[in-house]
Amino acid sequence: MKRILIFLLLVCMTLAAAAQKKTKAGGNIKWKNVRVLVYTKNGKGYVHENRAAGTAAIQQLGKQYGFAVDVSDDASSFTEDNLKKYAVLIFNNTNNETFDTDEQKVAFMRYIQAGGGFVGIHSATGSERQWPWFKRLIGASFLRHAKHQPFKEIIIDNTHPSTSFLPHTWQRDDECYFFKEYNPDIHVLIVHDLAPLDDKDKPTYYGGTSSPSVWCHEFDGGRQWYTSLGHDSATYATPEFLQHLMGGITWVIGKNKPLDYSKSHAKAPDDPLPY
Length: 275
Prior knowledge:
This protein is 28% helix and 24% strand. The chain is built from 6 helices and 11 strands. It has a 9-stranded mixed beta sheet with strand order 2-1-3-4-11-10-9-6-7. A two-stranded antiparallel sheet has the order 5-8. It is globular.
């Protein structure tokens, strides 16, 4: 009898811990009212094979937390009427030119200005490299990466939902991305530990000690979160990375306020930047 009681107690503790973990990752958002768009379009150039795995991971999170997930690689999805449906636009390993027309870019800008959310994964910083507004939104522009190898990530802010569950030093086997044209207002959450990294050019980045890897900020009315990690398809099946993604999505959604297009003012992609 005593063994049965101990077993039942352990089961209850496990279930309680799982419920607490899910609540923390998902916040207090009413997920049944949330719809997200996973966007995967690539322009001419290198196309990541991980897009299917990234999409499947977000669909899995949608099933787990109860939010709807739409998927598209068609830039014609970017109209004001269509984007109004979404709490977050997730650029899943997009690269190079991801829009076909200026009208699509303006619809995207107006969505963000209305309070929309944006999540960028891995190669998304290689998208729209000639568009200043997009580079300011996503926080930086991809420059190059070190060869694929094990390296360490250092958690700078462990209070964010995308990092709070991680150890101070997070061991990864991935591509270490380097960037240029940073938005000075990004809030850095994780940095690459460059000291042990095998890369001859690393001293040119912050003295070869560390460089930003994951960040978030608010820009032009909306919220943004970006992770440079996720080159390998297998990464998207690991619990830690799934929780990392979910934490970013959760932060971007925030209180899930309705979009307010009365605050949208974009007329052209080259409108003056807000700052």
